[in-house]
Amino acid sequence: METLIPKISTVFKTLLRADFTTQWRNRRAVILTLIVPVIILTTWKPFVARFGGPFVLSNSITIGLIAIGLMGYSTSIARDRDKGIFQRLRVAPISSWSIMTSRLLVQMTMILMVTTAIFIAGSSYDQVTLTAPGYIVTYFTAIVCGALYLSLGQMIVGRIQNPETVNSTVRLVYFVFIMGGMYGQFSTDTQFHNVVQWSPYGTVKTILAAGMEPQQWNKNASMALLATLGYTIVFTVLGIKWFKWTTK
């Protein structure tokens, strides 16, 4: 009796549908990821007149991207690996790359949702609007910047096997990035300010702000883009090298 093997595309569509369904069932975490940057955006309204709309919007999106890459992606990967889900999926007629691609597509959708939520809140509450090219370029830069934090999350979950340790680690990194990034922008210490500016937080914030005003894109933004791509490549290589499909 001949065994029918489903097409790879069919298996991938099924896997992608399952990942989106799982994300929907975990919608409380999704809502929290959307609300936190929006709350920060609204509380930073007084800074709009002083530093400009792109400054406030870019910081809020950056915080949302960090939450997606660390609090969302890495913790879900660690949880599913610990439950043996990845081990069972690898038995299916689908490549390992397809399994991870499905997860990443879900997170890319989250990046677009967070960016859109910030745009809506910024326009309705802070009265900050961008030009059409500004919106388009920012969506592209958000994807690029989001990839940095997804790769960082991949590196953490690759290096650390225990899901509880992953959870505590990403929370610590999240706190350090948020507090250090926001404080560094207002610090009078030039050296600390420069360190933050060229950290993953600072380069992402610079790219996003420049993308909101494409006509203002300069050499500093280009250097920040190169630094962001460099961070992403390093984190990705290490994340792939260290990652194990099981905790055993």
UniProtKB/TrEMBL annotation:
**Which GO molecular function entries does the Swiss-Prot or TrEMBL record give?**
ABC-type transporter activity
Q: Which UniProt keywords apply?
A: Membrane, Transmembrane, Transmembrane helix
Ranges for domain ABC-2 type transporter transmembrane: 11-181
Q: What parts of the sequence cross the membrane? A: 29-47, 53-73, 104-124, 136-157, 169-186, 221-243
> Which named protein is this?
ABC-2 type transporter transmembrane domain-containing protein
Q: What topology does the record note for this protein and the membrane?
A: Multi-pass membrane protein
Q: Name one Pfam family in it.
A: ABC2_membrane
Coarsely, its chief localization is: membrane
Instruction: Tell me which InterPro entries the record gives.
Output: ABC-2_transporter (IPR052902), ABC2_TM (IPR013525)
Q: Name one GO cellular component term.
A: membrane
Location of the protein in the cell: Membrane
